[in-house]
Design goal:
The complex is a heterodimer. Chain A is α/β, with parallel strands linked by helices. Chain A has 9 helices and 5 strands; from the N terminus they run E-H-E-H-E-H-E-H-E-H-H-H-H-H. Chain B is of the alpha+beta class. In chain B, strand 6 and strand 7 form a beta hairpin. The chains are: A alpha/beta, B alpha+beta. Chains A and B meet through helix 1 of A and helix 18, helix 19 and helix 20 of B.
Chain lengths: 209, 814
């Protein structure tokens, strides 16, 4: 279900201008990136990405759906690919809108190699980082799913900082039983200490929110 | 001083008057006095001789009449002298008949009174010497001299007689006897004396023998007839006999005038009284008083009508002679006058034409008289002419009219005819008199001048041209009427150069002054433009051209010039400059995005390709094939960028491109491609529908593209408030049968408000709140220059369509 993290990231280039698309592909290839190029937003949307991570280098103005339309569509995905906008004529309102929606960068053609490559690098790093944290949360959720209902209740109260006695009183069970559940929770969540458990809980919770 | 002078003048004139009395006048006065003395004395003697006996009744008493005649023949200032002359005659004559002295003196006084009353009244009414040749003379004499004078003086006489207790007769008996005798004497004797007074023996010589014979026959006839009737007739004759002297008196009246008549009357009178006094004739069979009265009445009845008749005939004869003379004088003058003269009577009919008129028209007096003259008037002028004549005639007003009158050679000549009402000596309206002058030459000259002036004025007005002249000697500017309001000057009155300068915009004054001074000094032409500030503050742009002219001494005398109001041109120029600039700014603004987009694409590709190549070259075994491809792509992108730049330069540079043959579809496609980005930005879906038929026009590529672009931008802007999904813009090209191609831009906006349709393509008119509205105006001017037609209309299914068409293959203007 989850793709191997080690897979090489892909730079998706979406631009209607053939020669520019070709040049960008060449440059990114030469810089060692795997590149998949599309002539329009539509082409990109219907392509099979195989869940490959990476980033999108997106032209703003294109026939059909624009770069901004595509960005909005991507943002609705679970793990949105970071977007770098590339435009021939950067007007302020468009760029502000793009950045608000979450664009990594807003580059103006002709773009310098260093600027482009560092933007790509940053976008990929961000994607990788986001992807890692996504993987962890997913793992924690798997662990959390293994807890029994009573164990989940105990987990939440422990994380909330309640003492065993308080938890026993609240759940109407003996303090002893609480301790058993607590040990099960620590094991199942692979936490070695209360502090780690709280950290895991936070991580999971932030991903939820 | 002046008083003294006046005083001495008076003294002098008094002395002079005295001199006239005693030295200058007396010579005639003495003669008059002497004649009076003789006449008075003889008259007295005759009077006594004709006294009826036994009881002395004076039937005919000449002295008073002699005195009256003397007074009538002399100026009043010497009357005293005549009375003085009569007094001794009176004394001598009366004292011989043993009358007491007081009575004699009293009679003299009453006699003088009679003569003075008669002479005074007659002088007063006639204001001239009496001549008995007019009815008024005779009438006044009869009333004043023969009736009033004896009538009044006889009261005095009777009073004196009664006072002196002379005689036994009653007061009124005395009055009556004296009145009748003096009245008869005055009636018969005074006219004879007065009319014969002027007679000079020399006048006999001018008389023909036939006339002398006739005169003699008349004299004899009258004497015989009178003698037979008055002396030889029985005491009771047939009454018809009393008329026997009448034919002779009438003969005298009609053939010999008042002088002979008065003599005839006197002869009859004398014979009648003498006969009676000597016991002959019809007036002898009653008492002396009755006989006297009868004979007196008989003679008065004969004398008065005969004298009046004579005077009347004389007067008429004289009047006729005078009239004939005056008419003949008038005719001579009229015929000699260098103008055409006519006269008409009270019935409006013409009664006279002078010789020049008849010679001018070549017609006879008979042909012209009445309304005959009208036949010579030009038919076109006749109605007007008659109307004017009739109207003026009825109003008794003078008139001047111009009409064409046919000359004897058949040519119609313009005459100026001036008519005035004329009145006779009694102030009675007598008709009209008029003069006509041939004014054809004048009118032709006048018309030619007027026509030429009118032509000039029209031409000047047509081009809003003012013509003016500055007289340098009087510093006065003359200007055509149109020029004056143009300069803010009053319609009339003197205008000086300074007046003109003060109307010029302060910033232009020195320049104009300098220019004109220069023109005057060097005598050269000048030309300038300046601003004129009208009194209401409005500034007008004027163009002025002129030249200096010199008098015979080579001194500058006049500046002649023309001025044109060029405000409109100036405004148009300015507006055009603004328009061009604004359109460029607007166009650049709209195009910036497109330009940047277009040009940055190839630039971006080039840069990225170069970067890629660089990276590839860093590798250990650079892929040469790939590098070659990269370089090829770089070159083609570079070429593309160059093309784009060239294209943009064409779009923005003024008159960069000459007219050329253009494919309409190509033009439209290029514009659509340029506008795609803009359409996208505005969320407008852009559609095209191009004609398949070959459609080539001749024109400015860039300008036509600009026009189309403006229409597209206009359409896009119109859809700003349309829901995004409904924003559709269709660019169509088509050919039609008129050998024209059409490009239309259809939007799906709200359409054009109806009230704005008519002015849609006017400059500075916009339906957009913030827009300059220049786009459509520019489009129109471009299309106009290509002899195209531009229009706009609302679609039946919403939105508006802007379209222009161009002639296929035609050459555009400009």
């Amino acid at each position: 279900m989850s793709s191997p993290v080690s897979e090489k990231p892909v730079v998706y280039v979406v631009d209607d201008n053939d020669s520019l698309r070709k040049a960008l592909t060449r440059l990114l290839n030469a810089a060692g990136y795997e590149v998949r190029a599309y002539a329009s937003a539509g082409d990109f949307a219907i392509s099979e990405r195989d869940n490959r991570r990476g980033c999108v280098l997106l032209d703003v103005r294109m026939p059909g759906p624009s770069g901004l339309d595509l960005q909005e569509a991507l943002a609705k995905e679970d793990e949105p690919l970071p977007v770098i906008f590339l435009t021939a004529y950067g007007d302020v309102p468009t760029s502000v809108h793009a950045m608000k929606v979450g664009a990594v960068d807003f580059l103006t053609k002709p773009v310098k190699r260093d600027v482009l490559l560092s933007a790509v690098r940053m976008a990929l790093a961000r994607d990788a980082r986001l992807h890692t944290s996504h993987e962890q949360v997913r793992d924690l959720r798997v662990r959390f799913a293994k807890l029994t209902p009573r164990e989940r209740e105990v987990f939440e109260l422990v994380v909330a900082g309640r003492l065993n006695k308080q938890i026993a009183a609240e759940l109407g069970i003996s303090e002893r039983t609480v301790k058993v559940h607590r040990a099960q929770v620590m094991t199942k969540m692979r936490a070695t200490s209360l502090a780690e458990l709280v950290h895991l809980a936070n991580k999971m919770g932030s991903a939820d929110s | 001083m002046t008083e003294k002078a006046a005083d001495s003048d008076w003294m002098l004139s008094r002395e002079k008057r005295a001199e006239q009395f005693f030295f200058a006048l007396p010579r005639r006065a003495v003669w008059a006095g002497l004649l009076t003395f003789v006449g008075y004395y003889l008259g007295s003697k005759i009077g006594f001789a004709l006294t009826f006996q036994p009881h002395p009744i004076s039937v005919f008493w000449p002295p008073n009449s002699v005195l009256l005649a003397a007074l009538l023949l002399t100026p009043p200032r010497i009357w005293w002298f005549l009375l003085l002359g009569a007094f001794p005659a009176h004394l001598i004559a009366e004292l011989q008949s043993h009358v007491p002295l007081t009575m004699v003196v009293c009679w003299f006084i009453s006699n003088c009174c009679e003569a003075l009353i008669g002479a005074g009244l007659i002088r007063y009414f006639l204001r001239d010497r009496i001549r008995f040749d007019t009815l008024s003379d005779v009438a006044i004499f009869c009333i004043c001299g023969a009736f009033l004078a004896p009538f009044l003086s006889s009261f005095i006489d009777a009073e004196f007689v009664k006072l002196n207790r002379w005689g036994q007769d009653s007061y009124f008996e005395i009055w009556r006897v004296r009145f009748f005798s003096n009245s008869l004497t005055a009636l018969t004797l005074v006219p004879a004396i007065v009319t014969w007074y002027d007679f000079r023996p020399a006048q006999w010589r001018g008389i023909s023998s036939a006339r002398a014979l006739e005169g003699s026959a008349l004299f004899l006839g009258l004497v015989i007839a009178s003698t037979v009737v008055l002396y030889n007739a029985s005491t009771n004759p047939d009454p018809v006999l009393f008329y026997a002297p009448m034919p002779f008196l009438l003969w005298a009246v009609f053939r010999f005038g008042n002088r002979a008549t008065s003599a005839g009357v006197l002869i009859v009178t004398f014979l009648a009284i003498w006969s009676s006094a000597h016991g002959h004739g019809p007036f002898t069979n009653e008492s002396a008083e009755i006989n006297a009265r009868s004979i007196q009445l008989f003679l008065i009845v004969i004398a008065v009508p005969i004298m009046l008749l004579a005077a009347g005939i004389q007067e008429r004869a004289v009047g006729e002679t005078k009239l004939r003379e005056s008419e003949s004088r008038f005719r001579i003058v009229a015929d000699a006058a260098p103008v055409l003269i006519w006269m008409s009577g009270v019935d409006k009919l013409y009664t006279f034409f002078n010789k020049p008129w008849l010679e001018f028209t070549g017609r006879s007096m008979e042909q012209e008289l009445g309304n005959g003259w009208a036949q010579g008037v030009h038919p076109e002028d006749l109605q007007r002419c008659l109307k004017m004549y009739t109207e003026a005639f009825d109003a008794r007003e003078s008139f001047v009219m111009q009409y064409r009158l046919r000359r004897n050679d058949g040519e119609y000549r313009w005459v100026s005819d001036q008519g005035v009402a004329r009145y006779d000596e009694h102030g009675k309206f007598a008709g009209y008199i008029g003069t006509a002058v041939d004014v054809t030459e004048l009118i032709n000259k006048d018309a030619a001048l007027r026509e030429s002036e009118e032509r000039m004025r029209l031409a000047a007005d047509a081009v809003n041209l003012g013509i003016w002249e500055l007289d340098l000697r009087t510093d006065e500017i003359w200007a055509t009427n149109r020029r004056r309001p143009l300069l803010g000057w009053p319609a009339s009155g003197k205008v000086t150069f300074e007046d003109f300068i003060s109307g010029v915009h302060p910033d232009d004054r020195d320049r104009i002054r300098q220019l004109i001074d220069q023109a005057i000094e060097q005598g050269k032409d000048y030309e300038c433009e300046y601003r004129l500030v009208l009194p209401d503050g409005i500034v007008r742009w004027m163009a002025m051209r002129g030249s200096a002219h010199f008098d015979e001494n080579s001194k500058p005398a006049r500046l002649l010039g023309i001025s044109i109001d060029i405000t409109d041109q100036k405004l148009a120029e300015e507006a055009n400059r603004n328009l061009v600039h604004a359109s460029r700014v607007a166009l650049l603004g709209e195009l910036t995005a497109s330009i940047a987009h277009e040009i940055n694409q190839p630039l971006g590709a080039i840069l990225s390709n170069a970067d890629a190549a660089e990276l590839l070259l860093e590798s250990e075994s650079p892929p040469l094939d790939e590098l070659r491809k990269i370089l090829a792509d770089i070159r083609s992108d570079d070429v593309r960028a160059g093309e784009i730049i060239r294209h943009i330069r064409l779009l923005t540079r003024k008159r960069a491109v000459q007219m050329e043959s253009l494919d309409i579809n190509e033009i439209a496609a290029e514009v659509v491609r340029l506008m795609e980005v803009e359409a996208h930005r505005r969320s407008v879906s852009l559609h095209t529908e191009f004609t398949a038929a070959p459609a080539t026009i001749f024109g400015h590529r860039v300008r036509l593209q600009q026009a189309l672009m403006n229409l597209i931008l206009n359409g896009m802007e119109a859809m700003a408030d349309t829901p995004e999904t409904d924003r559709r813009l269709l660019v169509r090209t088509a050919t039609n049968g008129e050998r024209r191609v059409e490009i239309s831009v259809t939007d799906s906006g709200p359409g054009i408000p109806l009230e704005k349709l008519p002015r849609l393509f006017d400059s500075f008119f916009t339906t957009k709140e913030d827009g300059m509205g220049l786009g459509l105006a520019i489009a129109r001017s471009i299309i106009d220059a290509h002899r195209g037609r531009i229009s706009a209309e609302n679609n039946s299914d919403g939105g508006a369509t802007f379209r222009f068409d161009l002639p296929i293959g035609a050459t555009a203007a400009g």
